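Q: Predict the assembly, please.
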Amino acid sequence: MAEFLMPTLGADMTEGTLVQWKKRAGDRITKGDIIAEVDTEKAAIDVEAHATGIIERLISRPGDKVPVGTVMAIIREEGRPTTSIASPQTIATPPAPPPPVPRTEDIPVATTQPGRVRISPAARKLAAERGIDAGQLQGTGPEGAITLEDVERATVTTAEGAKPVSGTDRQARMRQTIAAAMARSKRDIPHYYLSTTIDMGRAISWLTETNEQRPVTERLLYGVLLIKAVALALRRVPELNALWKDGEAGRSERIHIGTAISLRQGGLVAPALHDADRLSLSELMQHFQDLVKRARAGSLRSSELSDPTITVTSLGEQGVETVFGVIYPPQVALVGFGKVVERPWVADGLVVARPVLIASLSADHRVSDGHRGGVFLAEIDRLLQEPQSL
Amino acid sequence: MSKPTAGDETRTMVLRILSEIAPEADTASLQPDVSFRDQLDLDSMDFLNFVVALHKEFHLEIPEADYPHYMTLNGCLARLSAARS
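A: Predicted assembly structure:
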């Protein structure tokens, strides 16, 4: 028997609200299937099952605020009888009465399509602020999406009865969540910072040539080259690809790059691009595109938020040249990229104009030293000089 | 009221694509000669998605070298109307 728990989807998440179950009791599920949608301070998240089997019982109800680690459902794992654990014969003392559990059939399950309510982030926020159940609205946007206007209209029609919910402003809560994680980072992690300037001439020429031969739907952004270079460089300096737990760093065998994505309404999330070192640039681009789209639509998966092993943040879009990053706990390193700018550069004894980029590393001194950090940045530089091998 | 022209339809379509990429934006009050990036806070991923959507909607090949022409509403409409004629 496996317990399906409220997962932790970020460094300082303490609870989540069950929005809806995507499966019913009795449904067969496979590890990785999405079984619930949970709302956090940051976004609505599709939560994946971590076991394969049959859903024995749904315990939490939509609307419940559930603390992290609380049992939300029971899954009977494949090949194990229902009674394998709780069989009375094997228990010497009388078993405690089971906790009161609402009858399964009382728990509403999303009945129509398994997809979520189509709603723009702005409309979702407004609906939350005004205490309106977006699921009950009729969307007038593209493909029936709920727009800001739909929520405004609903506010007018329900104004008599509905009270605005105070203190639920998602942006304010997201700010608090980020503040808590970053305060913890600055309090607990002895950061050191390094940076290096990288000649991007080869990488950009290679990218331009590559994109010339690709239809618009298959073109790459240079950010993908940066992510891949970070992923490959971590193979050489694996101590930076680790999570700090119980007073020590545990290296991760797999490389999941948390990619900082700013949300249009403010705030940011850093979901993982899984196994970024093993994906081709085209695959990585597809995953990245999908991830940004889902992050902004508020439909990330639980694993993407809970398991990045390092974060990459690229602030060049805003014109920033250098990033001095704050590590996202429990990770032990963060890589920042600034804007690509033309600068005088000495190559083969001549001063030439080259596109250059400043890469920075913020790393945890409990885990690594500046020397290894320097090796890591040099490796990123080396990899970006051979873009065709990325 | 005059009949909607092909240009009006193109404009409506471009604005619809933009509002899908930036759902909170008020595309009706867009300044036609100021870049989307500045007005709608588009990043390179948003802009790529915009170009991909134009490609799908108007069956148009848009080489990367032409991207600068598509960065404002007027620039876009000029290119799309030239491609049609």
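Residues 30 and 265 of chain A are 35 Å apart (CA to CA). The helical segments of chain A are 121-129, 148-158, 170-188, 201-212, 222-236, 281-297, 302-306, 370-384.
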